[in-house]
Amino acid sequence: MTDEKRGCQCDCKKQDFTELAPVMEKYAKTPGSLITILQKAQEIYGYLSMDAINYISEQTGIKPAKIYGVATFYSQFRLKPIGKYLIMLCKGTACHVNGADMIEEAICEELGIKDGETTEDGLFTLNNVACLGCCSLAPVMMIKSESGEETYGNLTKDSVKKALAEIRQREGQEVKAG
Amino acid sequence: MKVVVGQGSCGVATGAKKTAAEFEKQIRAKGLNIPVDLTGCIGTCYLEPIVDVYDDNGGLTRYVKVLPEKVADIVEKHLVGGEVAKEHEISETDRAFIEKQKRIVLRNCGIINPENIEDYIKTGGYEAVKKAVTSMTPDEVIEEIKISGLRGRGGAGFPTWFKWNAAKQSPGKEKYMVCNADEGDPGAFMDRSVLEGDPHSLIEGMIIGGYAIGAAEGIIYVRAEYPLAISRLEIAISQAREKGFLGNNLFGTGFSFDIRIKAGAGAFVCGEETALIASLEGERGMPRLKPPFPAQKGYWQKPTNINNVETFANVPWIIANGGAAFAAYGTEKSKGTKVFALAGKIKKGGLIEVPMGLPLRDVIYEIGDGIKGDKQFKAVQMGGPSGGCIPASLIDTPVDYENITKTGAIVGSGGMIVMDETTCMVDMARYFLDFTRKESCGKCNYCRVGTKRMLEILERITVGEGRDGDIELLEELAQKIKDGSMCGLGQTAPNPVLTTIKYFRNEYEDHIYKKKCTAHSCRELLTFTITDKCTGCTLCSRKCPVGAIKGELKKQHSIDQSICIKCGKCEETCKFRAIERD
Fold first, then answer.
1. CB–CB contact A94 B285 (8 Å)
2. Pairwise CB contact (< 8 Å): B227 & A149
3. Which fold has domain B117-327?
4. The pLDDT of residue A178 is above 60
5. Contact call for B9 and A94, based on CB within 8 A
6. How far is CA B87 from the centre of its chain?
7. Which residues of A touch B12 (CB under 8 A)?
């Protein structure tokens, strides 16, 4: 196992980048493709690990510090793994006026996590986003998972809790009491 | 006969996919041979899911709020029986919502199937580009746009022909036509609707623009938060290529043009042209000084023209119908129509397109049908984080670039967030500053640090820790941020604060001096009390997380204000509306 370790001192294992290789082949030498590469990498692995950043650096010749700079500039990129379901809670103006803060409270109560955090069971991550563009259905959230995106509109504290509970149930896990 | 189900993002969010599947199932079960098609958003988002039934003679019946359980009834009555299922049909007043508009940009949205190029061609699609490329010189195209008076619909309202002309005049063989589809203003969604509902009108507009400035490549920079828009654009681009509208030697004229999509990664500042170009080049989206303007040195230092989605979607219509026909709508300096996204505390929210110059009153009361729950109209926010709040007293302001700018707000991309008496204006200012503070790229000190300081002051005021002199401090900081910032983000970031101080200074003063929020919205300034409507059911006292509510069973309860954390749980749980906030 030790030869699987890379330069870092922690116990992490080397990530396997075979899936990313074709992307690199296509884009590594095309100038201006860094954001596209990062998007593809995040699509495959769910987030951008330091390993992934180093790998992209090796392949493109762009310094890791610069890649890190780009990755942290844009709200889309994550440097930590996310849960199976990504809750994108809209914090646009219309949603704000129609009580998005209350919806956030309900999600936090239901899942015990705050914006940017993931539940212990790895099922949900909550991300506040700027605007989903469904303003006349405010407040709105989008839940993203492997099976695609689903948008929920005209949310109330109850309906958001119900939606989360349904996913929990589907996943065969016990709904948290309370 | 044909059944068409509206499937823009908003339709899908209300369950349109389930409705469409149910139609297919029921039609199969009845042994009928009627196709179920899809379309984009017609704009009446509050009526989704919307289903159109086209009879063989072209007659249209529109059904609204068609949840799956209503499908069987419509299939039985209309598709089998040939009679309109009146109880599900759109009402006269809702029909008026659409008929009071003049739809140029949205001409096909909610009517054609965006995933089928034939539908677009049937409406005269790609005729305009053919006309431009085969019978007009680039200068003639630019002249036609000049006659139309079209101004950039993305926010600044800069004349489109002027930008095109500058890019055309700029020396160099390699030029780029870029579409800004990074609709960043939280509260505006017209670009999404066009991308999802009529992507070919954007593509056609871009080809015409490319021809005018002499570009061979177009790039659409689209928000990653709009997955449906991206997928429909991809379909549209590949269909346009197949049909020979994109690619080499278009219409046999030797003019070549192709388009690719670049997904943005989420940064409001990328709406600024030079930041967008930096982002296209794979960099952090940070603006740079102008000049040189993108028309001289843009993408990879080559002449580049950037317009937004709505601007491009107007172009084919203008070329097909002539610039003068477009200029016949609107006011002296603001020509044509504009799409507005009506949202917030409005009864009928959605997308509307009206001639420029229509009074705000007509938009809010005639088309939007007034305020939700018939509460009192307080203000409308226009222009998003760069704009401002227009108070009820200015409701007769005509909606055009000049008049809206006079109020301190801007037309911007056309988001209109309606607010009622329960919306706190100080909190709105805080909300926008929180947004711009997060979205500031950090290059200019005043924008980076100044917005943070303003936010801190506003946060203090909304939690009841406002101090004498705060309003003046905000005004001073606002001016310094405007003066000390390089790009539009910083220069306009203080606008929401300045307009709310200008029109709602009393609310700021109430917060600071009386520690009161007149809209009863700022939680820390509320006092919850229990009125005599209380039946003593004890529910609230059991739900109270800090045990602040005392009282005997079947007797009026009371709240110990020294313990109360103002969480509002009691108000939520009370079934007798006995909890009052002040």
1. no
2. yes
3. Rossmann fold (3.40.50)
4. no
5. no
6. 31
7. 151
User: B343 and A136 in contact by Cβ < 8 A?
Assistant: yes
What pLDDT does B100 receive?
A: 86
Distance from CA of B435 to the nearest CA of A (A): 8
CA distance A40 to A110: 32
Assign A11 a pLDDT band (cuts: 50, 70, 90): low
Listed in order, the ranges of chain B carrying CATH 3.10.20.600 are 337-420
- CATH 3.40.30.10 segments of chain B: 2-94
CB within 8 Å of B363: residues ≥ 6 apart: B340, B342, B352, B354, B399, B416
Stronger pLDDT, B100 or B390, i.e. the higher one:
B390
Average pLDDT over residues B345-365: 94
Give dist(CA A142, CA A151) in Å, integer.
Answer: 4
Is a pLDDT exceeding 80 seen at residue A52?
yes
B279 interaction partners in chain A (CB closer than 8 Å): 35
List the single best residue of A93, A151, A152, A159 to mutate versus B (max B Cβ within 10 A).
A93
B14–A140: do the CB atoms touch at under 8 Å?
Answer: no
Asked whether the beta carbons of residue A136 and residue B224 sit closer than 8 angstroms, the reply is: no
**Residue B32 phi, psi dihedral angles, 5° rounding:** -90, 160
Integer Cα distance of B25 and B71 in angstroms: 10
Q: For an interface test with A, give the residue of B7, B10, B348 to mutate (most A CBs within 10 A).
A: B10
User: Which CATH code of 3.30.465.60, 1.10.8.280, 2.60.40.180, 3.40.30.10 fits the domain covering B2-94?
Assistant: 3.40.30.10
Neighbours of A18 (CB within 10 A): 6
- More confidently predicted of B482 and A146: B482
Q: Which residues in B50-175 belong to E strands, given as ranges?
A: 51-54, 60-63
Q: Where in chain B is the domain with CATH 3.30.70.20?
A: 526-581
Q: Please determine, for the modelled complex, whether the ipTM score is greater than 0.85.
A: yes
> What is the CATH number that goes with domain B337-420?
3.10.20.600
Q: State whether residue A32 sits within 8 Å of chain B by CB.
A: yes
Residue of B nearest to A148 (CA): B227
The top-level CATH class assigned to B425-514 is mainly alpha
The verdict on a CB contact (< 8 Å) between A97 and B283 is no
**Residue burial B357-375, b: 16+ Cβ < 10 Å; e: rest:** bbebbbbbbebbbbbbeee
- Which tens digits make up the pLDDT trace of B80-131? 999 999 999 999 989 988 888 999 999 999 999 999 999 999 999 999 999 9
**How sure is the predictor about A1, in pLDDT bands with cuts at 50, 70 and 90?**
very low
- Residues of chain B in contact with residue A38, where contact means CB-CB under 8 angstroms, are 265
Fold of B526-581: Alpha-Beta Plaits (3.30.70)
Q: Phi and psi of A81, rounded to 5°?
A: -65, 155
Check if A93 contacts B (Cβ < 8 Å): yes
- So what's the pLDDT on residue A10? 55
Inspect the interface and report whether the beta carbons of A73 and B441 lie closer than 8 Å.
yes
Cβ–Cβ under 8 Å, residues B191 and B309: yes
